[in-house]
């Protein structure tokens, strides 16, 4: 069974810092990897989707990379802002979606 | 498209009562998923459908839980009888294949 791990579980940084969130998975036979953002009391909003044939995707200040062979993905956030404070989850797609437990990010003004 | 629509957004019920959660997936999506999210256990997959047919219900906690998808535009998750430990946020998600789109969730409180 696919196991997805996210480290760290929580992260606090001052505004303006660049940061990296990590996601690892045990089975490299995946279709896609998707990064989500969840604000308190809200649903999951898709940030980036990386197909298995791709190495990375970018959207604004966000850049996600994928290394299937090592079972790792990273989400890079440049010039962090207080509005980036949320929980970030990664999900890998096989026969279903397998989610990590998320990283809770706090950006301090 | 308006996205995945769930109702109600909030539900408070007494222990022993029947609860029905509803989901309207994005039109054209062949897959529909029901998840439960708690602080302790994170996101748990309860059941998913492909073309209205249940494919994997191994995550349904017990016989008190049931899910149906009578057509491509509607699904329900029913809990009967409800218990306090069922209190959680329940999410519905739909997918055209390998990308998930989530609804805003139903926050269920069983007192």
List the helices and strands and how they pair.
The complex is a heterodimer of chains A (109) and B (111).
Chain A: E1 4-7, E2 10-14, E3 19-25, E4 32-38, E5 44-51, E6 56-59, E7 62-67, E8 72-77, E9 86-93, E10 97-99, E11 103-108
Parallel strand pairs in A: 2-11
Antiparallel strand pairs in A: 1-3, 3-8, 4-5, 4-9, 6-7, 7-8, 9-10, 9-11
Chain B: E1 5-7, E2 10-13, E3 19-24, E4 31-38, E5 42-50, E6 53-56, E7 65-71, E8 74-79, E9 88-95, E10 101-102, E11 106-110
Parallel strand pairs in B: 2-11
Antiparallel strand pairs in B: 1-3, 3-8, 4-5, 4-9, 5-6, 7-8, 9-10, 9-11
Describe the structure.
The complex is a heterodimer of chains A (109) and B (111). Chain A is mostly beta strands and 109 residues long. In chain A, the strands form two sheets. In chain A, strands 2, 4, 5, 9, 10 and 11 form a six-stranded mixed beta sheet that branches. A five-stranded antiparallel beta sheet of chain A has the order 1-3-8-7-6, with no helix packed on it. Chain A is globular, with a radius of gyration of 13 Å. The mean pLDDT of chain A is 94. Chain B contains no helices and eleven strands. Helices cover 0% and strands 56% of the residues of chain B. By secondary structure, chain B is mainly β. In chain B, strands 2, 4, 5, 6, 9, 10 and 11 form a seven-stranded mixed beta sheet that branches. In chain B, strands 1-3-8-7 form a four-stranded antiparallel beta sheet, with no helix packed on it. Chain B is globular, with a radius of gyration of 13 Å. The interface between A and B is medium-sized, with 21 and 19 residues.
């Amino acid at each position: 069974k696919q196991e997805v791990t996210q480290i760290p579980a929580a992260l606090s940084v001052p505004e303006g810092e660049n940061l990296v969130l990590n996601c690892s998975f045990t089975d490299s036979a995946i279709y896609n990897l998707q990064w989500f953002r969840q604000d308190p009391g809200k649903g999951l909003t898709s940030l980036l989707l990386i197909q298995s044939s791709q190495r990375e995707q970018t959207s604004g200040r966000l850049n996600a990379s994928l290394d299937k062979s090592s079972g790792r993905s990273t989400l890079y956030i440049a010039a962090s802002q207080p509005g980036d404070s949320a929980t970030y989850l990664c999900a890998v797609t096989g026969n279903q979606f397998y989610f990590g437990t998320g990283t809770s990010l706090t950006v301090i003004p | 498209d308006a996205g995945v629509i769930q109702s109600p957004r909030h539900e408070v019920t007494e222990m022993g009562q029947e609860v029905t959660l509803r989901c309207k997936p994005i039109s054209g999506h062949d897959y529909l998923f029901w998840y439960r999210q708690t602080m302790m256990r994170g996101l748990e997959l309860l059941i998913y459908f492909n073309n209205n047919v249940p494919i994997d219900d191994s995550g349904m906690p017990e016989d008190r839980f049931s899910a149906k998808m009578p057509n491509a535009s509607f699904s329900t998750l029913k809990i009967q009888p409800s218990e306090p430990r069922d209190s959680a946020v329940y999410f519905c998600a739909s997918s055209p294949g390998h990308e998930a789109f989530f609804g805003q969730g139903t926050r269920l409180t069983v007192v």
